[in-house]
Structure formats: C-alpha cells, structure tokens
Design brief:
Layout: E1 10-20, E2 28-38, H1 42-48, H2 53-60, E3 61-65, H3 79-85, H4 89-108
Antiparallel strand pairs: 1-2, 2-3
Length: 110
C-alpha cells in the first residue's frame, strides 16, 4: 500500500487514566476513553517540551469518545471541557502518556 501524505492527520488511540481509588486505599482505578489525536511533527513536539501541559493538550488533542460526567452523560469536546479536564493531573498524565507511546512504539517497530 502506498504512503499518502496528508496535510491534516488525526488518529484514534486508547487512553488509560489511573486515579487513586476511592474504595481501595493504596490502589488505583483505571478508566479508558478514546482520544482523537492530531499528528504533530516531531520538530513541533520537541519545541513544545518546555511549554505548559495545557498548551500541549491543545496542540495534540482534536477530540475524544467515551468521556462522560458522573451521570453517564457524554462530555462534549470543546475548549471549556478541555480546560476543566486539563486541571486533573491524572487525566493529563494519561493523555500525554498515550500520545508519546504512539511515536515511541512506532520507533520500536511495534
């Protein structure tokens, strides 16, 4: 299959968010959702290393699926929702870890 270079590329990738458990002291609960990531040039990622995480999230995240509020209602992807979730260090860690895993695993050939 030919490689087709597109100007705008996104891809879906699972994100696991591990949070301290409310019911099991000393344990973590894992939750998943699907992130829709922008493919960002490696040179841009390198430049962004010194930026705050909120700026990085705005660059790499194009949307999500399976993010819900406490009542099971889907949370729409928009700047307000992103800002609210970006205040959660466990959520940010999950998103950034998932994104970096995509290019780290590609380098390993997995």
């Amino acid at each position: 299959m030919a490689f087709v270079r597109k100007k705008v590329k996104t891809f879906k990738w699972p994100v696991e968010v591990k949070e301290p458990s409310e019911t099991n002291p000393g344990k973590f609960d894992a939750h998943e959702f699907i992130a829709i990531f922008n493919r960002v040039a490696r040179s841009v990622i390198t430049k962004m290393a010194d930026e705050d995480e909120g700026t990085l999230l705005n660059l790499i995240l194009a949307g999500w699926e399976g993010v819900e509020d406490e009542n099971g209602k889907p949370i729409p992807f928009n700047s307000k929702s992103l800002a609210e979730l970006a205040d959660d260090p466990y959520w940010i860690k999950g998103v950034i870890s998932a994104y970096t895993a995509t290019y780290n695993e590609a380098e390993l050939g997995n």
